[in-house]
Design goal:
The chain is α/β, with parallel strands linked by helices. It folds into 2 domains: 214 residues, inorganic pyrophosphatase (n-terminal core) (Alpha-Beta Complex); 122 residues, Diaminopimelate Epimerase, Chain A, domain 1 (Roll), CATH 3.10.310.30. 39% of the residues lie in helices and 17% in strands. It is built from 12 helices and 12 strands. The strands form 2 sheets. A 6-stranded parallel beta sheet has the order 3-2-1-4-5-6, sandwiched between helices. The chain binds guanosine-5'-monophosphate (5GP) and manganese (II) ion (MN). The site of manganese (II) ion has 6 residues, from loops.
Length: 357
């Protein structure tokens, strides 16, 4: 038997809010679960895992809506075929949202990450909303906000919430597979945000449901096309710029280059992590040219807060060691601006630790 005891990883001060959420879920049956744009493994895994469990609870009709499609390496997830992709089918997605009684948003805390169309629609329909997320900061824009940045992934947080709501007994192989995929992808296969023993207890519990962890790794990380691997080689050999004095390396890609290598959604995923494997490099950035802006993906080692860099200079945000942002300048200007602000960012005085204030 799994441990379903009530001792959990939340403060007692949140007790009342759990009762509210329990009450809400008992009262309302038509639920839409929404993720952020460019949904990753944590967003899709969390949404599908939660959908399956709420559907099994009996009185819910739950659907998952993602703003745009997710990378191909997630499309095998149990329940994926039932997902509504807003960008491809806005009418059905709007109908579903309009008839929902409750909207649960997972894995983001900034409404901008929904895209303007869904944001506007949500404002118009004004449904009760719940936010379940693990990103730091954020405005708590939902009616009920469950933001816990101490968790390495939303999927890990959802597992803990299910225990708290006494829904954990509804977990099965499929939903456990979805949650474990979320945990694996957000921790980069247990390489980051994975120092808590509790995480591995959760993983062990999920494995009790018959999840095949090696199959998840295989399906997520070993399904690249030959072009993708060659593309990675090109990016590393031709397009990586190293700034040793600033402990930084970046890769920049134009649309033409991505087209040349038949770039598919998700092909640049993980690329930004390679430069961090160089000794002495603590910040890695990937600049990719999009239709109307340059997208930045930032990663760091140690206590360098790339989320602060992203929010201060590139209209973005994220986690301490993984963040994203946007630039509306040309690629050339963006790179020059980045090198300029990077010096400023690295030279800024560090805030004193709490006990020295
Ligand atoms: P990625 O580089 O994989 O696109 O994003 C890494 C992390 O940065 C995401 O998990 C997310 O937390 C954050 N992020 C990416 N893009 C944005 C953005 O435009 N705004 C904010 N606030 N966060 C972002
Ligand atoms: Mn996440």
């Amino acid at each position: 038997m799994l441990s379903t005891q009530l001792s959990d990883r939340f403060e007692q001060s949140t007790d009342r809010r759990w009762s509210e959420l329990e009450h809400l879920l008992r009262q309302l049956s038509r639920v839409v679960i929404l993720t952020h744009k460019n949904p990753d493994g944590d967003a899709v895994g969390s949404a599908l895992g939660m959908m399956r469990i709420l559907n099994k609870a009996g009185h819910h009709r739950v659907s998952v809506i993602i703003p745009d499609s997710s990378p191909a390496f997630l499309r095998w997830l149990p329940g994926y075929s039932s997902i509504l992709v807003y960008e491809r089918n806005p009418e059905s997605a709007e109908k579903e949202l309009t008839s929902a009684e409750l909207v649960i948003m997972v894995d983001f805390n900034d409404p901008e990450r929904l895209g303007t169309e869904i944001q506007t629609l949500l404002e118009k329909i004004a449904k009760p909303s719940v936010l379940i997320d693990h990103h730091p900061g954020g405005t708590g824009f939902a009616r009920y906000n469950f933001s816990f940045p101490q968790f390495g992934s939303t999927a890990e947080l959802i597992y803990e919430i299910l225990k708290r709501l006494r829904l954990i007994d509804l977990l099965d192989t499929d939903s456990a597979t979805c949650l474990l995929t979320g945990i694996i992808t957000d921790t980069l296969g247990f390489k980051v945000s994975s120092s808590s023993p509790a995480l591995f207890r959760t993983v062990a519990d999920l494995l009790e449901y018959g999840v095949k962890i090696d199959e998840i790794f295989n399906r997520v990380y070993n399904q690249f096309s030959a072009e993708r691997l060659r593309f990675t080689g090109y990016c590393l050999s031709e397009k990586m710029v190293i700034l040793p004095d600033l402990q930084t390396a970046y890769i920049w890609l134009t649309k033409e280059e991505m087209n040349r290598f038949s770039h598919q959604k998700g092909d640049t995923e993980g690329l930004v992590n390679y430069p961090l494997s160089i000794a002495g490099i603590s910040i890695a950035v990937l600049f990719t040219e999009q239709d109307d802006h340059i997208k930045l993906s930032l990663r760091s080692k140690g206590d360098l807060p790339v989320n602060e860099l992203a929010s201060k200079y590139f209209k973005g945000g994220g986690h301490l060691n993984a963040a994203g942002g946007k630039s509306y300048r040309s690629m050339k200007e963006t790179l020059a601006y980045f090198e300029k602000i990077l010096k400023e960012f690295l030279n800024q005085p560090k805030l004193p630790p709490d006990n020295e204030k």
